[in-house]
Amino acid sequence: MLRYSKIFVFLICLWPLCSIIYQLFYNKLGAEPVDKIINHFGEWTLIFIFLTLSMSPLKKITNSTIWIKFRRMLGLFVFFYASIHLLSYVGLDYRFDFQPIINDVLKKKFVFIGFAAWLLLIPLAITSSNKMMRILKHNWKKIHRLIYVIGIFGVLHFIWLSKTIFFKPLIFLIILIFLLLFRVTFNKSGSKV
Ligand code: HEM
User: Fold this and answer.
1) What pLDDT score was predicted for residue 171?
2) CB contact at 8 A, 120 and 149
3) Rounded to the nearest whole angstrom, what is the distance from the C-alpha of residue 114 to the centroid of ligand 1?
4) Is 171 within the bounds of a domain?
5) Which atom of ligand 1 is nearest to 169's Cα?
6) Which one of 14, 28, 177, 192 has the fewest beta carbons within 10 angstroms of its own beta carbon?
7) Is 193 part of a structural domain of the chain?
8) CA-closest residue to ligand 1 atom 6
9) Angle at which helices 146-161 and 167-188 pack, to 10 degrees?
10) pLDDT tens across 89-108, in order?
11) In this structure, what DSSP letter does residue 65 have?
């Protein structure tokens, strides 16, 4: 049963990718397709970060460990979509011309923090297996707490890049604060989240 649930969740997680492929084939990406693709994957990266962070609160609320079984998959989808987001920016926006990209990273704080978030995702992806969990023991948990820092960086990235429209970044900020508060509250009460 769990196996089928995992396959089902995996297929749903592919939705953001399929939707862009569909829009690409049917010319529905609008006047600025590159921006649309970059923003689409950026937004979904943040959504997947929040989904990953929601699994522990859901475990607590529902008193069921089933949520934790999906956490690794969701976390790997964070890395997957963040990498496509980065690749679309490097490949579609700059056509792999690395000098202006390095300038962007150094001069634009929103690109810098986005890049930092992506770099922090690498150790999480590398250490996501059961084998690495066994090797790293209690350090594994410490490393994987980085997801909270990545969430903060991701939201800051969104706030800093949004020059005029603040509604969406604000919603993301509120969700993040909510998830962080949950984490802090349950840490204080001594529960493992
Ligand atoms: C965990 C990592 C990241 C997250 C969560 C993230 C999230 C986002 C979000 C939410 C948006 C805006 C989407 C919208 O407007 O609807 C965005 C846009 C963007 N991101 Fe990221 N991002 C990440 C990493 C990166 C990296 C590594 C780069 C490049 C080095 C990058 C470059 C950009 C650019 C250029 C835009 C478009 C800005 C514009 O519209 O002018 N992001 N990202």
Assistant:
1) 96
2) yes
3) 6
4) yes
5) 10
6) 192
7) no
8) 42
9) 160
10) 999 999 999 999 999 999 99
11) G
